[in-house]
Amino acid sequence: MKFLSLQLTFLFCISLIFFSCKENSFLAEHWNHPLPLLNGSNQGKQSLLSPLESNLDPKQCATCHETQWKSWKDSFHAKSIGNGLIWQKQILESKEFKNCLNCHSPLQETKAEISETFRTDEIIHSQIVHFPEGISNPSIQCATCHIRNQIWYGPPRKTLNQNKTENYTFPHNGFQAKSEFESSLFCKSCHESPEYGVFLNGKQLMEVYKEWENSSFAKQGIQCQNCHMPDREHSWKGIHDPEFVRKSVQPSWKLEKISDGEIRIHAELKSIAVGHKFPTYLVPKILLRFYTIDTFGKKTLIEESIIGRLVNTKLSEEYYDTRIAPNDKHTVYFTYKLNGKKIVKVEWETIVEPDEHYVRSFEESLKEKGKLLSNETKKQLTLSLSEKRESEYKLFTLSLPMPVLLQK
């Protein structure tokens, strides 16, 4: 395609077109695009809703669901529309950009805030009814997952009284309980590439569901929601959250003397609580860096190992894939000659670059296409690139003292 090298937020654009969930008829209908208008076909129930119930701005949902709203507003679901996607509107073909919105802004009402294609009389009318104060954030909203045709859906109640879910005396007439809300299948349509998507080295760009399905986590019945929505929390924490990642992996290492002038380092990073390959997809990278510290405090890099899937910006070639499978480990094993240096300790730093591929691709786009972009689009790209660069963080730092005999 004309701008294949720019098909990024590509994990959520080219390869993230919604596809039919053949495994489940409810989900196939629930995620069938275009999603029905919120001011949809079930007008009988609509007439019974109060103005507060008809207002589907997430801030209104917080009236009764404040805990979920507080988690959502700081989540990446609430940030699915940002500079990183919007700047690409100028360079993507209309159909491709619309496909991006199927995951980034699934509701027709929110899509209309981003793309003129969706500004029809029917959609504008539904906006007025359900977002009377306007749509300040056209990202993934409460209604995106929970409302279709004036019917509210959600997971079964936690209490024993699970069947009492639909009643006209309840707020918004109650809801329909669906066990699919607690199944990994619910997440699949946005976090798994379609079967007709790009394949590199026999793998799709995103296979997180397939990776989970073949793991011990799936066999134990541990779903995506168990880790990413614990106790039904709506934060969806992942690679950008240091504490979440620290609980998911386990480092171990040892330093051995080989001779008076040589040492051996054996380090392992084990995936202990990740139900798919770590890190997910091809965007993040994990850098394992090893340094020597001498008697003067000078720090010298002696080894680096990268965990991740490195693909070129055109999404046409995979260079390597060193990601860690569930319950597996990444091993670094090397020797180092001191050459007379007075080393007092060795340090192991682990750096997480959650947006490495975006940084590389956006830098290339700015360099090669910057002159073709409008001032506004170039500003959006520049801001997004800055955001992606700043997402890097240090996961942990470990140190081991040099054996005493080698410090002399």
Question: Mind sketching the topology for me?
Answer:
Elements: H1 25-30, H2 43-46, H3 51-54, H4 58-61, H5 66-73, H6 83-86, H7 94-104, H8 108-111, H9 121-130, H10 142-146, E1 147-148, E2 151-154, E3 176-177, H11 185-191, E4 199-200, E5 203-204, H12 208-213, H13 216-219, H14 224-228, H15 242-246, E6 249-259, E7 262-271, E8 285-294, E9 299-311, E10 318-321, E11 329-337, E12 343-353, H16 356-369, H17 375-390, E13 393-401
Helix pairs in contact: 16-17
What does this structure look like?
This protein is α+β, with helices and mostly antiparallel strands and 408 residues long. It contains 17 helices and 13 strands. The protein has helices at residues 25-30, 43-46, 51-54, 58-61, 66-73, 83-86, 94-104, 108-111, 121-130, 142-146, 185-191, 208-213, 216-219, 224-228, 242-246, 356-369, 375-390, and strands at residues 147-148, 151-154, 176-177, 199-200, 203-204, 249-259, 262-271, 285-294, 299-311, 318-321, 329-337, 343-353, 393-401. Strands 10-9-8-12-13 form a five-stranded antiparallel β-sheet. α16 runs antiparallel to α17. The chain starts with 24 loop residues before the first helix and ends in a 7-residue tail after the last strand.
Describe the oligomeric state of these chains in a short phrase. single chain
**Which band does the percent of strand residues land in?**
15-25%
The arrangement of helices and strands along the chain is HHHHHHHHHHEEEHEEHHHHEEEEEEEHHE
SS class: alpha+beta
**Major sheet description:** 5 strands, antiparallel
β-strand number: 13
Q: What is the gyration radius calculated from CA atoms?
A: 25 Å
Helix content: 25-40%
**Cross-sheet strand order for the largest sheet:** 10-9-8-12-13
Spans where pLDDT lies below 50 across 5 or more residues: 1-22
Number of helical segments with 4 or more residues: 17
User: What is the average of the pLDDT values?
Assistant: 90
- Overall geometry: globular
Through-space gap between termini: 62 Å
